[in-house]
Amino acid sequence: MRNPPPRALSIVGGVEQKIPTNTVARLSRYLAALDGESESSISSEALAEKSGGNAAQVRKDLGYLNAAGVRGVGYDTAGLRNQIRHSLGLGQERRVVIVGAGNLGTALAGYPGFAERGFRVCGVFDKSPRLVGTEIAGHPVLALSDIRECASSPSTMIGVIAVPAGAAQIVADMLVAAGIISILNFAPTPVHVPPGVDVRRVDLSTELHILSHRLLRSEGTG
Amino acid sequence: MRNPPPRALSIVGGVEQKIPTNTVARLSRYLAALDGESESSISSEALAEKSGGNAAQVRKDLGYLNAAGVRGVGYDTAGLRNQIRHSLGLGQERRVVIVGAGNLGTALAGYPGFAERGFRVCGVFDKSPRLVGTEIAGHPVLALSDIRECASSPSTMIGVIAVPAGAAQIVADMLVAAGIISILNFAPTPVHVPPGVDVRRVDLSTELHILSHRLLRSEGTG
DNA sequence: CGTTGTGAAGGTCTTCACAGCC
DNA sequence: GGCTGTGAAGACCTTCACAACG
């Protein structure tokens, strides 16, 4: 959320600049699009087509990576993939803890995209003694109190909140107490965290509301 | 991501103006925040606090609704709730079909927030004959071929794609063929649809990538 | 008084258009 | 010729600041 004042990072081998969040989101999609690409080189136009965007934007976005496109040809597929992976912090393995072993937590734990895209689920937690000890999607369900232990390399971990709204804040507090500073919140409520902790929120009802609003409009005009 | 057709909308006879998508998303959150509100009136500052936003923005957003705030007091809770519901197209019941009865589809079908926020799941579909006929989250699983039948009031329906990437486009085509013009796509791939069909995309990997990128930054500066 | 409603300012993101390069 | 890289323009979004008002 609150990012530090724009400051140059000393990354080995280059000067990185701040990349807007929207661009990061699209980079993620470019990466997915590249996964299905067998040609050794790809043009901004082709990449836009495959990722659902537009060519000028692709070029602007890749500009943030100091991407090595070749004029008249396009971008080297393998090199571009590496650069995007690097800029998304996927050079090292990212570990994910999921809190909440209900329907959503189960879906997340079993989501094949996680592993494919560089994330490893390293713990699924639930407060219910009925669930602790069972297994979902191949992961043992652990007690909430074990979060701390699991989070031994805090800075590389992401915590996912997949519990009902009423429990979201308490879970957030626990994640923060365990040293996790990066949280994805699926509960339909905001959570408060100390400065330095980054929360992203995904709310299914909100997505439906947006579609519903636009339906209303097309009903009005149609 | 595909955004709404950039057409200017002239609602006949009305004073309704276009509401930016970001504002619509926040309206959804204001609505959620109001659900937990018992006071008869609420200030922009209080609403901002409860919804995780900022007061000036709340006032700007509510301005799009011609909201009837009372200076020195705040907004009438019940009235505001109604206005937001109306502007989100929740005056009528919105029906949702979910395609894909895997982990994610099951989680969505069982998500209590849907019903609470004005949406009714009216069909869960899957291509697997093994699943058709079973029940998930209280909904019978139907065959894909029944989508058309289910979508008798097309304009009020929202289709949710909860299938693997490889099947997403085919499912999108089927939804469109059934007359559905509003789609929420959870598959990690874009889908192509004809003009007039509105697609929103939610990608879990992308959310994780954004967090991962920001972790990288804080590792660099920390 | 406290709070809304809103023009104006400031910032960010997207699109355009074309120079530059292979 | 074809495609990238990018400044400039334009659209959009957020924040500020304060007048208007109950």
Output the keywords.
seven-stranded mixed sheet, 41% helix, 21% strand, DNA-binding, disordered N terminus, 222 residues, alpha/beta, three-stranded antiparallel sheet, 9 helices, homodimer
Description:
Two copies of one chain form a homodimer. The first copy, chain A, is an alpha/beta fold. Chain A contains nine helices and twelve strands. In chain A, the strands form three sheets. Chain A has a seven-stranded mixed sheet, sandwiched between helices. A three-stranded antiparallel sheet of chain A has the order 3-5-4. In chain A, strands 1-2 form a two-stranded antiparallel sheet. In chain A, strand 8 (135-136) and strand 9 form a beta hairpin. The longest helix of chain A has 18 residues, at 204-221. Chain A is globular. The model of chain A is unreliable at 1-15 (pLDDT under 50). The interface between A and B is large, with 78 and 80 residues. Chain A binds a DNA duplex (22 and 22 nucleotides) through residues 20, 22-23, 43-45, 54-57, 59-60, 62-63, 67, 69-75.
> Most extensive chain contact?
A-B, 78 and 80 residues
Order of helices and strands of chain A: EEHEHHEEHEHHEEEHEHEEH
What oligomeric state do the depicted chains represent? homodimer
Structural class of chain A: alpha/beta
Widest sheet: strand ordering of chain A:
8-9-7-6-10-11-12
Mean pLDDT of chain A: 88
Overall geometry of chain A comes to globular
Low-confidence stretches of chain A: 1-15
| Count of individual beta strands of chain A | 12
Proportion of beta-strand residues of chain A: 15-25%
Strand count, sense and closure of the main sheet of chain A?
7 strands, mixed
Whole-number radius of gyration of chain A?
20 Å
Head-to-tail CA distance between termini of chain A: 39 Å
Q: Tell me roughly what share of residues is in helical segments of chain A.
A: 40-55%
Q: What's the number of helices of chain A? A: 9
